[in-house]
Amino acid sequence: MPRDNGRPPPAAPRGPGIRTDLRLIAEMVEPGSRVLDVGCGDGDLLDHLWHAKEVDGRGIELSMDGVHACVSRGLSVIQGDADTDLADYPDGAFDYVVLSQTLQAVRNPRDVLSDLVRIGRRAIVSVPNFGYWRVRFGLLLRGRMPITYGLPYQWYDTPNIHLCTLRDLGLLCDEMGVVIERSLILSRSGRALALDPGRLANWVGEQAVFLLRRRAAGDGA
Is the pTM of this model over 0.90? Predict the structure, then answer.
C-alpha cells in the first residue's frame, strides 16, 4: 500500500488514458515506490501511478495553473523550478525521479540530469529527438525549423532551448557516469522499440524514454 502522505486519495482517473511516453514511464515504475515527478504538468502521470501502482507520489511544477490542477485532483504537488529547486532534495530520497519531455526546456540540462540520478535510485527521462529522420529532411528540403508531434512549436515560441539527438543524450550519460539501464524508442505511430540510442534509434525514433542510474563501482569504466 502507498505511504500515507496526509492527503485524501486522488479522484478517479480522468479521460481516455495518458499519452504513450507516460504509459511507458509508468510501466518502468515498481508498485509502491516513492516517486518524484519533476515538471508534472496537470498530474496525469502521478494520478495514473497512484491508481495503477499505488505509489507514494510527489510532484513539482513550474506553472501555478499546473499546480492548481494537480491539487484539485488530490495530488501532492508544489510549485518549483527544476533548474534551481532540485538541489534542495537529499540523495536517495526517492526510488524514481521522473522528467518527461522537459530536459530540453531547462536552462542547465547537465545539472538537472545529475540531480535526477542523485535524488532517485533510478531516473526516468523522456525526450523528443532532433535526430529523427523527418526532422532531418525537414531542415534539408524546406530549410526551416521542423514541426513534428514531438516538436510541435514554431521556432519563435518554443519552450525547448536545448534540443538534442538521442546520440547526444547517450554520449552525455557516458560522460557523466550515468548508466542507461533501458531505452525505449517511440516511432511516429507510437510503437515502442527496445533499441539503444545509436544510429538506428537516432534515425527512426521521434521520442525516447530512458531508465537511468548512477554508475556504481562494479559497473567498470
Answer: no
